[in-house]
Every structure is written in structure tokens, then in C-alpha cells.
Specification:
membrane; transmembrane; about 260 residues; mainly alpha
């Protein structure tokens, strides 16, 4: 199911539920009921709970957005380190250089074509990707430099392979959902309480009041959807992409 379809259904459902409850509640109100008699303490508490929940929503959105940015940065660092390995291997003999570049390209192709989809579906890295990276590491570390020039390039190449491994590990840690279940419980409970409190203000069936109630519930549903969409940096619509790999290895990342 498309994320936009989920968003549309969620907002429409939230709006429909709130408006239905408002209309049904209004039928039970006596004709001589005066909405101006709402105690000031209720208006104050409603306002304060709304403010507190707005702060919580803001922190949640900032947290998942930061996690998405960190996930995209780990992809960039991984692709850049692989590019350095491929470029710096130019000082090695042709057969060694070609082997390193071929294995780097194989790793990139696997990440873009297969591992990315696996991360989306399972929230983890693949064993094949680990094996391909180990092969790149073996190509670099097992070669014995024969000249001073090759010797000077050896350690930086080893460091770049280590940087690839570190960035890959960070990508694996960010592959799943970042928001704990208890936080989701608090967000959803807070949404129900915040939306429910508008009925303590004796909302009427006028167009203006129903419109504001509907828009408020739609806004809450949209913000929760936004948090949910950002919560899996590699798994949903607004997610980290393979663009760094594709940009640096266009010949290898054709998928």
C-alpha cells in the first residue's frame, strides 16, 4: 500500500471519527445548555496539554529527522570511502588494481540492487554484502607493496577499507525503526487525549467549530504519519537513497 494512500486514509479516518463524535455528543446536550459556562480550569488544562503534546511531537519529528540524516550520511561516507579505494589502487600493478576495482564494483552493485531491498524488507544487512566487503579487504591487505610509492599508498587504502566497514555498520544499525515502542504508545495516547479534550469545551455543530475540529484532527494524524514515515530511514517513502553509490559508481550501480 502506498504511503500517500495510508496518509489519506489516516487523516480521513481521524477527521471522520472526531466529527462523528462531535455530532453525536451535540445531540445529547440540552437546549438550555450554555457553552460559556465551561470552567476556566478546563480551558487552561486543555491549552497546557496541547502545548506539552506539541513539544513532544516536535521532539519526535526532530529525532527521526536526525536519524534519517545520519543514515544518509553513513551512505555517503561508505560510497566515498569505496571511491577512494578504487581511485588510490591506481598505483598498484594492473592485475591487482583491476581485481580491487572489480570487487569494489561487485560490492556496490550488490548494495544498490539487492542489499537495499533487503534492508527495506528485513531491517538488516546481507551476508553476501559482508562477504563481498571481506573480499575487497583481502585484496587490499594481502598485497605486499613492492615499491616505496606502493608502500605509501598501502596504509591509506587499508584505512579507507576500515572506513567503509564502519560506515556499513552504521548503515546496518539504522536499517530498522529508530523509535521505541513505548514512545509510539505515548504519541498515540497523547493524540487521543489531546483530540478528546476538545470535547470538554462543549463544541457545537456550527460549521466553523466542526471545521476547526476536523482540521485539528487531520493535523495530528499528518504529524504522526510524518514521524512514522521518517522512523525507518531506509524503508519508507521519505528515506535515505542510494544516490551516493549511483553518483560515484554509475557503471556498477545500474539498478
Amino acid at each position: 500500500m502506498s504511503e500517500w494512500l495510508v496518509l489519506t486514509i489516516a487523516m480521513a479516518s481521524a477527521c471522520a471519527v472526531v466529527l462523528t463524535i462531535a455530532v453525536l455528543s451535540n445531540r445529547r446536550i440540552a437546549e438550555d445548555d450554555d457553552p460559556s459556562e465551561t470552567p476556566d480550569v478546563i480551558e487552561y488544562m486543555t491549552m497546557m496539554i496541547g502545548v506539552v503534546y506539541a513539544i513532544v511531537l516536535g521532539l519526535a519529528i526532530a529525532g527521526v529527522w536526525e536519524a534519517r540524516g545520519a543514515a544518509q550520511e553513513s551512505v555517503r561516507l561508505e560510497a566515498q570511502a569505496l571511491h577512494e579505494v578504487s581511485a588510490r589502487s591506481a598505483v598498484y600493478p594492473a592485475e591487482v588494481r583491476d581485481r580491487i576495482r572489480s570487487d569494489v564494483d561487485a560490492y556496490v552493485a550488490h548494495v544498490v540492487d539487492d542489499e537495499w531491498r533487503w534492508m527495506t524488507d528485513h531491517g538488516s544487512l546481507t551476508e553476501e554484502g559482508t562477504r563481498l566487503l571481506d573480499r575487497v579487504r583481502a585484496d587490499v591487505t594481502e598485497y605486499v607493496p613492492r615499491t616505496d610509492h606502493e608502500g605509501q599508498a598501502y596504509q591509506p587504502l587499508v584505512d579507507q577499507v576500515a572506513a567503509v566497514d564502519d560506515a556499513r555498520g552504521a548503515r546496518g544499525q539504522n536499517a530498522g525503526a529508530t523509535m521505541p515502542g513505548v514512545v509510539w504508545f505515548g504519541l498515540i495516547t497523547g493524540a487521543v487525549v489531546t483530540v478528546g479534550l476538545i470535547f470538554t469545551l462543549q463544541i457545537r455543530r456550527t460549521f466553523r467549530e466542526l471545521l476547526l475540529a476536523g482540521l485539528f484532527s487531520v493535523l495530528i494524524a499528518f504529524l504522526l504519519f510524518l514521524i512514522w514515515d521518517f522512523d525507518a530511514p531506509f524503508g519508507r517513502g521519505i528515506s535515505a537513497t542510494t544516490a551516493p553509490f549511483v553518483d560515484l559508481f554509475p557503471h556498477a550501480a545500474k539498478g
